[in-house]
TrEMBL record, chain B:
CDD domains: TM_PBP1_transp_TpRbsC_like. Pfam families: BPD_transp_2 (PF02653). The chain crosses the membrane at residues 6-27, 39-60, 66-88, 95-115, 150-166, 198-215, 221-240, 247-270, 276-293. InterPro entries: ABC_transp_permease (IPR001851). Keywords: Cell membrane, Membrane, Transmembrane, Transmembrane helix. It is found in: Cell membrane. The keyword ATP-binding does not apply. It is a multi-pass membrane protein. This is ABC transporter permease. It comes from the Bacteria. It comes from Mesorhizobium escarrei.
Amino acid sequence: MSSLSSSSVAARDIVALEGVTKRFPGIVANDSVDLSIRPGEVQVLLGENGAGKSTLIGMLSGLLQPDEGRILVDGKPTPITSPRHALALGIGTVFQHMMLVPTLTVAENLLLGGRWWQRPRTEELAARVAEITSTLGITVKLHAKVSELSLGEQQQVEILRAMVRKSRLLILDESTSMLTPKGIDELGALMRRLVEQGLAIVFITHKLKEAAAFGDRISVLKLGRKVGEIPPERFRALGEQAIISEIVELMFGKQSDDPEAVERPVRTVHAEAAPLLQVADLAVAPTDNAPGLSSISFDIRPGEILGIAGIDGNGQKQLAEALAGQRAATGGSVRLEGVAIEALSVGERRRRGLRYLTDDRLGEGTVGTFPVSINFFLKQVGAAPFWRNGVEQRAEIDKRATQLVREYDVRTPSLKTPVARLSGGNIQKVLLARELAEGAKMVIFNKPTYGLDLANTLASRQRIRDTAARGLAVLLISTDLEELLSMCDRIAVIANGALVGTVENVDDARTKVGRLMIGLAA
Amino acid sequence: MTGLFSAVFLSALLFGAVTAAIPLLLAGLGEQMSEKAGVLNIGIEGMLLAGAYLGFVGAFYSGSLWLGFVTGAAGGAAVALIMALLCVRIGLNQIVIGIALTLGLEGLTALLHHFQFSRSYPRLPAADATVIPLLSDIPVIGPAFFKHHLIVYLAVALVFGMGYLYRRTQLGLNLQAAGDKPAALDVAGIDVIKTRTIAVLTTGALAGLGGAYLANVGAGLFIPFITNGAGFLGIVLAMLARGRPVWVLFGALLFGVCLSLTTAMQVAGINIPTDVIQMLPFLAVMIMLVLFGRRASLPAALGIPYERGAR
Ligand SMILES: Nc1ncnc2c1ncn2[C@@H]1O[C@H](COP(=O)(O)OP(=O)(O)OP(=O)(O)O)[C@@H](O)[C@H]1O
Ligand SMILES: [Mg+2]
């Protein structure tokens, strides 16, 4: 799968890291890392949550300065002093966490960075964007406010922005996490075209198949150290399966064929059991840039996992929020254990056992600056035994938090660490612990594994299965079809705010769901 | 017709309202810019006072009102520079520093004034008005709005200049990004610290100008504590205006009417205790906060110092 250009001349490094070390209080995020980035090559960077990938990118993009070691640009030692400097050197980055201003429009975000005395060049931008989007096969709403876009659409805007800037080195930090399978393939093809034009690309992902399909060279980080590299020659010699098992060995030191391909355990959902959640004709009005929902109906029985498949931005978030009570429904009914809850508040629905795990972990899921311990109880603020007469009960909170940290294997330096400091996988564990605790009956998971490394993905999926096995009803929203196929009892497909079909997850479900997703009848 | 509702009274009332509104307008516009860029500038009361004092001193010794405006703006900017260094560059708490600056300037200006003028309060000659032909001949409205010092018209023009700046220019985008998502601005290659510093210095200069107007044109003299909370009213205006300069103008005029009414009622000798009358502007603040306060939307990163690479 690699290009010819990379094998031609012995390409010189555009950027190289030599013995780069970066420390944060209490942790060595990068430990004497060497890395060479070459034109004409897609360099894949792999590693578990917290391995130090984003930290490395932070140093390449001028956000962080290395404590030791040096960075060479075109062979010359060059400290990258600021993001502006990085851009001037031709290093363009799509960061893992959204770097768009929510209150500005897409166009304004793309224009950000012009000199202050200039007038924003809107027409020029529109022309350039049209050119890029047509080759990328995406559409971008230039005049929509960023806050109204889905996370997937925001990710597209960020990729687009990096393209508009014409970089020599393009860095993509988990840029496929919110894209659809089709979007991912298109991004892969685009990367291939770009490296053929002589660009260098650094591509970070947690999906080993993407690494094998799109990469030329793979470097693996573990606990801040570089533990292995597969150079292009070897890469080309190996098949997909061989590459994946080599990576798994490097990352986890254990052998397994395809770690994601777990057998779906046959569970017994009592078909005759009364549905736990009944949704009938649920409707939500559309806003300017988000689709509404129309006549959504489904039931979920105890112990059942219903999947919602579909291309991101087709109403998934609206559905989850309408069920959780965060978004006003314009019609229809929602019954939990036979009791109508559509008129109840968010808090009341939660008390009755309806839980919602948002996909926006840092934005709406947690308060980043609050300690891990408090984040476990955010939705119970004021309630006994953690609060008494309005006073925080430190001892009670810490005691329960310690249990949860152990039970859910949250890797945190301490209970007092602000939650935003944790890596993505550990933030997700905090959320899981909070939502699945005490009294949950029905749980909505919105993209529960995006941005998680393999180990955490598998652990989260196991949590979800266990949740269903305990007799809870589960609604699993995901853009990852493999995930749905490996977990769900039934899969419904959402398109344009309506469910276009539901299929039992048996033998030919993959093709049926696939057909529904591209607009054909199952 | 005589008394409260005569044409003369009404136009004097409105004239006074405009005069009282200008310092509020300039402070409000300044505060709005800082807040847009993510800096809560509580020190603005101190900047106003520094502008009033230095503006007066400049005009008093040079005999030129315009030079007074320049020294006033410079004085406000100088205080803002301290704020920018401590809060933007070093990242200290904006509320603490703001309060410290205000209290410090209240003491300092009173002290300096005492050393210079002892207990006397020298007056400046009355400011020349720029009379706008034709418009100033309209009854009531004319004398109220079109016979002011040139700086008044410039301040109103500034409202529209600011509107243009925020909505149409690159600097406007940068300021908004600095307040709503500074990291996004930083990775776009624009220095957040610099952008916020520019905003805070501009705030200082505008507040200083407002203070100089208050002392030199509005009152014609400097007395300690002359600003009497105008900077805080400016903060309220900026918060209620939701980033729109025109709303600052409306709000400033509304407060201006209240302030002017207070004076007018005292002059007219209406039989209400002065304490009650003097509460009027603050009552107006409360009412406006109750009516519009809930919809006020503040920038997401307001009050949070930016540190590159932190999370
Ligand atoms: N600004 C910071 N302050 C303190 N600790 C930090 C900071 N940034 C990162 N860390 C810590 O450094 C380690 C490496 O984090 P990094 O974000 O680089 O991991 P990652 O490999 O990108 O993980 P993920 O796959 O979850 O994105 C983590 O333990 C993280 O908690
Ligand atoms: Mg990362």
